[in-house]
Every structure is written in C-alpha cells, then in structure tokens.
Amino acid sequence: MGHMWSAYVTSPDTAPDLQNLPTFDPLYGFENGRKEREMVATQEEMDKAKVPLNQRDYCAHLLIDLMKCKRDNYPWFNECHHQKHVYDQCEYEDYIMRMKEYERERRLFGEIKTKEEIGRASCRERV
Hints:
By secondary structure, the protein is mostly helical. Helices cover 59% and strands 0% of the residues. The chain has four helices and no strands. It has helices at residues 2-10, 43-49, 60-72, 81-126. Helix 3 packs antiparallel against helix 4 (81-126).
C-alpha cells in the first residue's frame, strides 16, 4: 500500500516504476565502484533441478541445495533446517538489496525534481 499511495497520490513524479529496470547509472554516487551481483546457478542447473521460474533469482543455487536435501531426506524435512535457514537468509538479503535500490532511485528522482524547481525559481527571479 505504501508504494501505491506515494506512486499515485502523494508524489507520482518521484516514485520509481517497479515494472522497469533502474533508470540511473548503477555506479552513480559510488566513487570506488560497486560489486556487481552474479548468478551462481546456471540456466542449465536450474532447468535440471526444475526450479520454478518465479524462484530463479540470486538465491537459486541455495534453493537447489534445499530441494536436493528435501528429496534425499523425505519425509524428514527437519534434517534440512540448515539449508532452509541459509536460503531464507539469502532471500532476506536480496529483499533488502532491492529495497535499498528502490530507495536510491526514489531519492535520485527527488534530487532531479529539486534541481528543476531551483532552476525554475532562478529563472523567475531574473525576469
């Protein structure tokens, strides 16, 4: 609800579009650069393990391990609690990373809007 309210009611001009990729340079604001995220599991590995399409993210390699553990230890899934914990932690960190990226986009849109308003105000003062 929070994103929907800000995106359509309170500040639609500064809310990032969730359906598209980030619009700003990923290295903008990072003097030393940033580590690029890489997929550990390959497409072939995910196909072979039958990982669902909606779970093919940066944590897919851990999901493959969890699925293998569950298959090997059926019906005693409690043997896989370590793999589940590691996978859940990876998913949580991925969520945090995406929320930070969303917030970065929102703030950069806000900076652009502020600079445009300052530019318009200075033009009015000259006239």
